[in-house]
Fold these 4 entries.
Entry 1:
Amino acid sequence: MRFTLRSLPKLPAMKSILLLVFCGMSVTTFSQRLSGYAAFGMGSSIEDNIPGCSNQNRLRYIGSMTIYYRITGRYSFGAEAIGSGPLNLFNKSACDVTNPDNSLTLSSSNQRAGTILLHNKMLLFSYKEMEPYIDFGVGINTFYYSEPDKGAGSLKKTSLVFSPEFGVDIYKFRFACKMIIGGKTPNFRGTDANENRPVRLESMKAQQVYLTIGYQLFRI
């Protein structure tokens, strides 16, 4: 005999209970798909050595906000906004170099950057409150250099970048290793009006690698 709600004409209370259970299951199935994280960390700029600079500063800080939308139990898509820059510790230097002809070569090392990424995240497995994952992001990175010469304003260079990431979520915390691959710094040619000498800034490739700690701000 086929069982349907119509087979319970004399049990309106049971119909209501079954409908409530069905709606509850539907809400549970489609809820908690959206989550947001804030993360901070430290890392390094992977870049060329600057000639004449023996104390080059490559330390960096990073701060980010990420939103994920869960497609299935294992796969999620997301978007991330990142701000990063040089972390000045241990008396290391950015290393501007005065050349023999009295021209000034500004340091291309370790510049401020802003990054926007789209993410594809895959959960590897889930054990209690521990969820290791891998993530691959693609987007744009912009390096900034402020006032290479008076009146020149802020220089910027935008590049396509890729961002592999491996991490683990433990309860509401996230521990991750992230790379940003493909960035380039801006270049500049000008003259220092105060000292009447040429000033230049060379473009260079600068990858970034970070260790971060994040916290889940919401899950709805």
Note: Residues 17-30 have pLDDT under 50 and may be disordered.
Entry 2:
Amino acid sequence: MIGCTGPQTPHVFQREDADRESIEAPELASPLRMNTRYRFDDTDCNIEENECHQEEVNRLSPPPLRGCRSAVENMPYMVTQRHWSTVVNETRKKDTTAVVNCAVHPYGLHAMQQLISGLHKFESEIFGSLQGLYKQLAQGQHPHTLFITCSDSRIDPLLLTQSKPGELFILRNAGNIIPPYGSGAWGEAATIEFAVGGLGVENIIVCGHSLCGAMKGLLEPPPDFPALTAWLRHAEATRRIVADLYRDRNAADQLNVAIQENVLLQIEHLRTHPVVASALVAGKLRIYGWVYKLETGEVFNYNPQAQQFEKVTRDYSPVATVPYAASI
């Protein structure tokens, strides 16, 4: 629960009536939620109301919206500097008032409403039109490509490549990084192993992108993100290349160089994974290095013969950064 912390006690919502009676919420199935007392702005989430029945409290689910919604749902809100306050629709329930201070950002609630609306649209409109495809996918997946890219919200691999569900097996993290095999990053290693060894993908694409925040963090380490700083050590060679060979360039040029060099470095890391090395020697796998330019929608593919990234045009013949039967 964002912004909600407190001692390990059961859910208790205080009623502001004459007896100051405490109403305990029903036991929850999730052990992660059973021992949390919701607090907002370092104050108990208290509901002030004239009418509050046990059944109303029981239906306020699921957490963490219990304390924020009080006994009246779908209330309009107004934004203040540190919190938002719900305002009761007076026509909904006579003589009922409620004010709840909550550290949840109102725009987050609006975004969730958009997501829920999207879910309903997908179920009622889109899924039906693709029912044959999803029926086939229910029998199993057979993607042809492992697509490794950054977690950046501005990148959508399916939209970028105009692929259908089931065609791409996608691995995303900050900086499209592939730690060398045996480095302890088993999440990436497991995904790669399953994609190549289990699903038999024929291609791997490592796709970086312009304006990459991870690469900017690599060149200018942020002080308050220790986990990110530790993760970016898997791109230390990229930072060193930029520092040693491009120190005379401006910050924008250095960032662009880092983005491109990092794609090539991660491909080298990728080849240390046994399942990848075996598939390359057996002639079952090709690896491509891409850079996606957010500002224009262009994609650039690395050509090892030309030793540069080339713009992918309509008539472009794809050149693998690491072709079949590559020497390991």
Note: The first helix runs from residue 31 to 34.
Entry 3:
Amino acid sequence: MILKRGFRSAALFVAAFLLLLTAAGLWWLALMILALYSLSKWLNSRAFIKKNVLASMFCLILSVCTLAILTRIFILEVYVVPSGSMEDAIFTSDDILVSKLNYGPRLPQSPFEIPWINLWFYHNKETTNPDSIYWKYRRLGGLAAIKHNDVIVFKKLSSDKKFLVKRCMGLPGETIRINDSDVFINDHKVKLPPTVKQHYLVQLKNNIVFKRIADSLNINYGIKASANLDVADCYLNMHEIMLIKNIGCIDSLIYQKLNYGAYPQQPKINWSLDNFGPITVPARGASLLLTEMNYMLYKAVLAEEGADLKFENSIFYINGKPATNYVFKYNYYFVLGDNRPDSIDSRFWGFVSERAIEGRVIFSFFAKSKSGEFIFTKLL
């Protein structure tokens, strides 16, 4: 009697959990759990497997490997931060846990994107092309849409193999503008995260005090002697600027402008990393009027979508046919690194396609703080 009640309670709990997943938009996860549970029950009921030790071990190993592969594709995966472009939020070589559930998992488009199974295909890549697309882009339902300031893992192009980590600043359909390093979304100035840092020359009143404070904050700097006040060359976030100003060891801060050429790298568009835009982030279903300016701004996006856009004799052609407008197939995002002077991001190469996004960074673990201290976990 007690066992029956316990079984009923467990069954009710599982049913409630699966209904909760379905209500949250994760119906596919509920089906997956049901399928795995049914398969497990079926295997355990086979007399041959129960009596044969080798068969039991094989089924156990196969189950563990399958569960690991499915977890990496559909739920969670660990990545290593490839660069310092997101300092001071996360640092080079930090391990980060990326959730596939937040935005929904992107299904593999080739066997080379399936963990562990891809080893066999790489071993036999003479007969298979790692860059080939075998299946169309598909993404299952997730818990939420991408939001401003989400730290995301993605590939610059959907065909790339290298993963990048940046902060999402612009959503589909929004107009982005950068004016003297300040970011504006639809003409509203954005409050930047406290980890964003910029390049400054700091005129010093007291070298000794500045060095002590900078060393305690683990700020990298170089000091140049001058006839009047010595100058420190360093990258600072807003928290560090406030601390240094309050201590009173500096005379002034001189922001160093980032006047490098920026996307779309066209002579007629004189944008820089600090003065960029305005530009509208492409949205799925939005119609783009084909003009000479839009040709320069969005040609790379159309190429990513497989549209061959050409401008000849004042006429636009898409895949060889005259056209006056183009409808975007996918959503795109504008991303920036927190380490603004040392981040190669949307200011250089444009937008990130939804097809290239792997997931949202939840936290880093086994990481180091800016001071070099070991941190087990750090939420983002």
Note: Residues 2-23 form the longest helix (22 residues).
Entry 4:
Amino acid sequence: MRTVTRITVTLRRRASAMASSTDGRNINRRNRLRRLLSDGAHHDEPKGDSMHGEPPAEGFVIVRGAADGFAQEITAGAHHLRSDEPASAGGTDSGPTPYDLLLASLGSCTSMTIAMYARRKRWPLERVTVSLRHSRVHAEDCAACDTQEATLTVIDRNIALDGPLGEDQRVRLLEIANRCPVHLTLSSKMDIRTRLQ
């Protein structure tokens, strides 16, 4: 039996920037990020804190790409990967698209969260498979939209749970899937703060 979940994501940009926290930990993170970005501005590969030989801190991702194409080099902690667009869109297909990476983030978080919960409960879950698809749909009756011609982002998520689970266990694991951290982030209001350096 497959469980199907549909997530509708609406992102809103807030006009006013949120006040930044001034506690020591956040100041330290901001200073470290400044060092990371200034280090990376003079080298081909993104580096961590060169003074201490550290990779970028957990939670910081650095993305760098040439202006003449779509291919991007991504550094997330000690991990390196690429993103690109398919040849049909003018890219070189050297990596997943940005939306593929978004879906992979939700899918991997969903699978990890379900498996962790089942392990803690000692339930007979053997494998989790999450299949996702991104699309945009016309929002004809969207009360929160400024215009009736707005579109909504829709993520279709299919979850297959393998193992001799009872129906109550399967229902509970679906509830847990809907509470994975990336799901909660995507379905909450989001403030993306952007600045030039």
Note: DSSP finds four helices and six strands in the chain.
